[in-house]
């Protein structure tokens, strides 16, 4: 209801600050401005013995053509790229062969300044030098690389030993669990096992695998599009035009999809705790379960997470080369080497938040932080399971209200208000709303608590009645699909509104409303309100992909970014290019996620569980 009221308020508010008389991308005057990006062929440049290549960012300055400089400034509003900057990758030895200077950076600076003055009557100042190179180079193998290679070799060896043991052991005797944990065959059987459960209540949860797998495919699509903002583009006006289109809001405001994972995480945590207490009455839920919840999650996530940090911190930088390799890939390697400990402690969203090492892993930090709260809340309200739903609903509303107060006092914005090309290209560096609203646990806490609420609702449900028996719920269930999509689309209307109070209110409720709609859908799926959709979301392939979800999530950023970083020319961006990039990312990601799951994620988790005796 709150979401409907706010959406109506946004519609009635009418257009505001977004309406302006500035130029539009692709107008005739647009092409009179200096190109935003230019990239010479670095491979051809460095093939020459005297080849020299420089990459850097320039700031335009007024000179003889002041009308053009005014035009550039008027165009560079927040919803487009900042065209007062120029990104240049120049073969200094050929493009600037007639330019003299005391050093390569000096020749680079003077060359670009001369070209800009000659072609546009504008000045250009070197604001940031990424690098200058005068020859092909091989990145040296260092201690980090050797150490990680040794870890990989050890893991492969242990998997070989464990697999041989599993094949050759006497099947009539109990296995040595610490050895069997490393069997690739056993891990494969676990991955591909049929999803049916002996207990009907667990078997009903099979659609959750489908929700995870489908949501993750959409996350891959969003990130495949996102990396185009980081590279040098042949036609940046495409992304600027896209930003003006209403349909683009489903990409720019589609980060709500991550809330599906928080919802599922909260639900599975609470539901499994309740079933555990029911199966074993001798060990009722108590505060002693809190450390076990934390240890289980650490054993589940940390080993494979640290392995991927090792990949990024070492051999990823050796995987290719190109003019953008250093700023896009090697910069990430350096960031991870300096910040790995914050990831290991799951505080990377708070520690040096503008230093991006595997930027998508803010989710893992928030998920671990919310685990503490959700587990504590579950243990607290489990003493009154029949009243738990009402207590949790009140707690969710209280958290939403507190979030609104924080957003209002700190003057934070919803992501749709700052998710523009220039901000995305800058990877949200210095954006307070991204640091203190988007990637903090309290902002996503209502989603996780909604999952806990659904768990208690499902657990307390009478076996003699199902939601399908209620005509009202069937109507609400079927409406939740389009309502969730419309709620994401409502962000486009918000861009037409200038009133800060509505913006603050939307920032506070955008995630809780979306999650509530998805929770209605999930509850209906679990209870087979729609048998056809239940069968589709319970498809065995989804179950396999659902089990691979952690490995897929950790891996996907690497191929998505590598594919654009390795290009030797400015990238042509289009719908077909983004789609092709998405499909290629999916293929590479899934192909890499399977061995990561079989050789790292599952065996280490099972081995640690067998050693600690915690399951």
Structural features, described:
There is one protein chain. The protein folds into two domains: 2-13 and 23-133, no CATH class; 178-612, no CATH class. Helix 8 crosses helix 27. Residues 1-21 have low confidence and may be disordered. Helices cover 63% and strands 5% of the residues. By secondary structure, the protein is mainly alpha-helical. It has a four-stranded mixed β-sheet with strand order 1-3-2-4. The protein starts with a helix and ends with a helix. The protein is built from 27 helices and four strands.
Salient structural properties:
single chain, 615 residues, mainly alpha, 2 domains, four-stranded mixed sheet, 27 helices, 4 strands, 63% helix, disordered N terminus
Structure, briefly:
By secondary structure, this protein is mainly alpha-helical. The chain is built from 27 helices and 4 strands.
Mean pLDDT: 90
Global geometry? globular
- Helix vs. strand class: mainly alpha
* Order of strands in the sheet with most strands: 1-3-2-4
* Radius of gyration based on Cα positions: 27 Å
Number of helices: 27
Number of strands: 4
What is the straight-line distance between the termini? 41 Å
List low-pLDDT spans: 1-21
Helix fraction by DSSP (H/I, runs of at least 4): 55-70%
How many strands, which pairing sense, and closed or not: the largest β-sheet? 4 strands, mixed
The figure for the number of domains is 2
Percent range for β-strand residues:
under 5%
């Amino acid at each position: 209801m709150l979401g409907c009221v706010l959406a109506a308020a946004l519609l009635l508010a009418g257009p505001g600050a977004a309406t302006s008389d500035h130029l539009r991308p692709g107008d005739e005057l647009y092409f009179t401005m200096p190109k935003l990006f230019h990239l010479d062929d670095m491979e051809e440049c460095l093939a020459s013995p005297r080849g020299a290549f420089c990459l850097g960012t320039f700031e335009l300055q007024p000179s003889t053509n002041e009308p053009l400089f005014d035009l550039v400034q008027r165009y560079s509003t927040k919803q487009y790229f900042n065209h007062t900057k120029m990104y240049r990758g120049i073969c200094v030895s050929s493009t600037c062969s007639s330019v003299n200077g005391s050093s390569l950076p000096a020749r680079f600076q003077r060359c670009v300044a001369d070209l800009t003055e000659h072609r546009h009557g504008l000045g250009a100042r070197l604001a940031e030098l990424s690098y200058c190179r005068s020859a092909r180079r091989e990145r040296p193998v260092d201690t980090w690389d050797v150490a990680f290679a040794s870890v990989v070799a050890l893991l492969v060896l242990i998997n070989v030993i464990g697999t041989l043991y599993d094949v050759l052991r006497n099947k009539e005797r109990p296995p040595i669990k610490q050895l069997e944990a490393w069997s690739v065959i056993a891990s494969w059987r676990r991955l591909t096992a049929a999803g049916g459960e002996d207990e009907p209540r667990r078997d009903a949860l099979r659609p959750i695998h489908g929700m995870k797998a489908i949501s993750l495919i959409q996350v891959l699509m969003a990130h495949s599009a996102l990396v185009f903002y980081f590279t040098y583009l042949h036609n940046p006006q495409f992304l600027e035009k896209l930003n003006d289109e209403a349909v683009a809001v489903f990409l720019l405001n589609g980060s709500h999809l991550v809330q599906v994972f928080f919802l599922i995480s909260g639900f599975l945590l609470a539901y499994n705790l309740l079933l555990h207490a029911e199966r074993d009455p001798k060990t009722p839920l108590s505060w002693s379960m809190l450390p076990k919840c934390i240890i289980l999650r650490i054993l589940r996530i940390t080993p494979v997470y640290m392995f991927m940090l090792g990949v990024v911190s070492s051999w990823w930088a050796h995987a290719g080369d190109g003019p953008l390799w250093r700023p896009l890939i090697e910069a990430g390697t350096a960031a991870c080497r300096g910040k790995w400990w914050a990831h290991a402690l799951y505080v990377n969203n708070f520690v040096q938040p503008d230093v991006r090492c595997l930027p998508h892993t803010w989710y893992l930090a928030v998920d671990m932080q919310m685990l503490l709260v959700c587990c504590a809340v579950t243990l607290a309200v489990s003493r009154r399971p029949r009243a738990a739903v009402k207590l949790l609903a009140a707690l969710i509303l209280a958290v939403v209200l507190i979030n609104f107060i924080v957003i209002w006092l700190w003057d934070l914005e919803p992501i749709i208000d700052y998710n523009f090309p220039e901000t995305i290209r800058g990877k949200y560096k210095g954006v307070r709303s991204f640091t203190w609203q988007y990637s903090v646990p309290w902002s996503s806490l209502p989603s996780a608590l909604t999952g806990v609420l659904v768990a208690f609702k499902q657990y307390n449900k009478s076996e003699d009645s199902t939601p399908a028996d209620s005509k009202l719920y069937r109507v609400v269930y079927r409406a939740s699909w389009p309502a969730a999509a419309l709620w994401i689309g409502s962000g486009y209307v918000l861009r037409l509104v200038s009133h800060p109070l509505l913006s603050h209110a939307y920032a506070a409720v955008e995630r809780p409303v979306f999650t509530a709609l998805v929770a209605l859908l999930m509850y209906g799926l679990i209870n087979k309100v729609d048998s056809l959709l239940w069968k589709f979301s319970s498809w065995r392939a989804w179950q396999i992909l659902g089990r691979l979800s952690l490995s897929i999530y950790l891996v996907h950023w690497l191929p998505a970014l590598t594919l654009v970083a390795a290009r030797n020319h400015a990238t042509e961006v289009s719908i077909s290019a983004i789609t092709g990039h998405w499909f290629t990312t999916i293929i590479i990601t899934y192909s890499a996620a399977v061995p990561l799951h079989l050789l790292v994620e599952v065996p280490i988790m099972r081995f640690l569980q067998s050693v600690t005796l915690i399951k």
